[in-house]
Amino acid sequence: MTSTEMREQLDAEQSLRAAGLRVTAPRVAAIEALGEHSHATADEVFARVAQRLPGTSLQAMYGVLGALTGVGILRRIEPAGSAARYELRIGDNHHHMVCSLCGAIEDVDCVVGDAPCLTPSETSGYRVQTAEVTFWGSAPSAWRSRTPEMRGRRDAATRQGRPDRPATDNPSINKETR
Question: Fewer beta carbons within 10 Å, N or C terminal of the chain?
Fold first, then answer.
């Protein structure tokens, strides 16, 4: 085990103890897997954890991810049309950029800073705590891999107002308040 791996394991163990959770190998492995690959689905986390802990089941991994999300160690995001994804970046107000071509997800810092960064026109009595913003576009690598003909069809579909096909220069914004 390298010194970096040892530090990550200690950080994972400290996070679990601070949250009042028992330190278990699957929990530590899930945190470490997300440290290596953010915005991962439960299946992706499970695949990484199963390499280290072959006896782990997918059902157990869902339980681990649920527990870690419940105590605030992880954040669960749900981009439209995608499986839930998990990340370790929890202590700030940030949003996500999602590629509508390849599904890649990147963090986007909030320009306002404090949550919620959007104010709804009507709250219906709710006390708004956060606003989730998802920007949709095309990742540079996905855009470059498309042929000119495919790019033309995509632009034409967007000009025709098809919201299921957002353009790179006019991203759809998914605003969701909790």
Answer: N
C-alpha closest to that of 138 among 154, 159, 149, 152: 154
> CA 161 → CA 61, 157, 165, distances in Å?
40, 7, 9
Q: Which of 9, 54, 2, 43 has the alpha carbon at shortest distance from 27?
A: 9
Task: Look up residue 86 and give its DSSP letter.
Answer: E
Structure tokens at 50: 């199963």
H or E stretch at 83: none
List, for residues 50-70, the tens digit of each pLDDT value.
999 999 999 999 999 999 999
DSSP state of 145: H
Question: Under a CB-based contact definition with an 8 Å cutoff, are residues 48 and 37 in contact?
Answer: yes
79-137: pLDDT as tens digits: 888 899 999 998 787 888 888 888 889 988 877 666 566 777 787 888 877 777 788 88
Closest of 130, 126, 127, 79 to residue 100, by C-alpha: 79
Instruction: Report the alpha-carbon distance of residue 124 to residue 95 in Å, rounded.
Output: 24
CA 94 to the chain's CA centroid: 11
Give Cα 45 to chain centroid, integer Å. 12
Q: Could you give the dihedral angle defined by the CA atoms of residues 54, 60, 63 and 69, in that order, rounded to the nearest 10 degrees?
A: 10
